[in-house]
Amino acid sequence: MVENGRRRAFLRGMRDGVPIGIGYFAVAFSLGIAARNAGLTAFQGFLLSWFGMASAGEYAAITVIAAGAGYLEMAVVTVVANARYLLMSFALSQRLAPDIPLRHRLLIGYSITDELFGIAVAQPKPLEPFYSYGSYLVAIPSWSAGTAAGVIAGNLLPVRAVSALSVALFGMFLAVILPPARKDRVVLGFVLAGFGCSFLVSRLLPGLSGGSRTILLTVALSALAAARFPIREEDDARGT
User: Fold this and answer.
1) pLDDT tens sequence across 55-83
2) Residues 33, 150: contact at Cβ < 8 Å?
3) Residue 206 has what pLDDT?
């Protein structure tokens, strides 16, 4: 019975990961071109995306590599750019059943991306780890393969044409946030507030990185939402 539940969750995760994987391949293609310009091979680009799994962090790492900086600087830049995933890991850990082994928690935390976090957090509690594994199996290889393909293609395509493919990423974000926003006005309000605040902070603090801005706004808005609109324990027990 348990195995059947895990299999269904795994297949459901693979299904939900397909559109994300398609978008990832397109977006990572432009990342691969940047990696090629920095002198990376297709295999190196593949490994960078396989272990990095973050567009902002990888772009930052590629920029540092192109500048000839050292490993320490590269590590610091990558940590700052990807620090928001710590918050996502904390959020997902609260959706797992208390008896989930540590190895599953580490695997889920290691492989989080923005979109994969979005579909996982939208699942009813408790989150089945094999759902995330199914989505990872489709999305992460697609991201890595897209980077390798971009390195191989090099500068054969115009940069603007390749950059236009990143529009697919915004479509995936909308697909994640629109359904819960339509069901709950509070969620809708904070989604709109997130857009507005992100724009304002980018104008008022232009030197703040995108990753740091995401962390700042996530902590502030989630704390405000928790304080003003707490979830009742009985609703939380039902997984809402």
Assistant:
1) 777 887 888 888 777 787 778 777 877 87
2) yes
3) 83
Tokens of 61: 């790492």
Residue numbers in the chain where pLDDT is lower than 50: 234, 236-237, 239-240
pLDDT one-digit tens code per residue, 150-181: 888 876 766 676 566 556 556 656 766 788 78
**According to the model, what pLDDT value does residue 144 have?**
94
210 Cβ partners below 8 Å, 6+ apart? 56, 81
Residues 6 or more apart whose Cβ sits within 8 Å of residue 46: 144, 145, 147, 148
HEC profile of the chain: CHHHHHHHHHHHHHHHHHHHHHHHHHHHHHHHHHHHHCCCCHHHHHHHHHHHCCHHHHHHHHHHHHCCCCHHHHHHHHHHHHCHHHHHHHHHHCCCCCCCCHHHHHHHHHCCCHHHHHHHHCCCCCCCHHHHHHHHHHHHHHHHHHHHHHHHHCCCCCHHHHHHHHHHHHHHHHHHHHHHHHHCHHHHHHHHHHHHHHHHHHHHCCCCCHHHHHHHHHHHHHHHHHHHCCCCHHHHHCCC
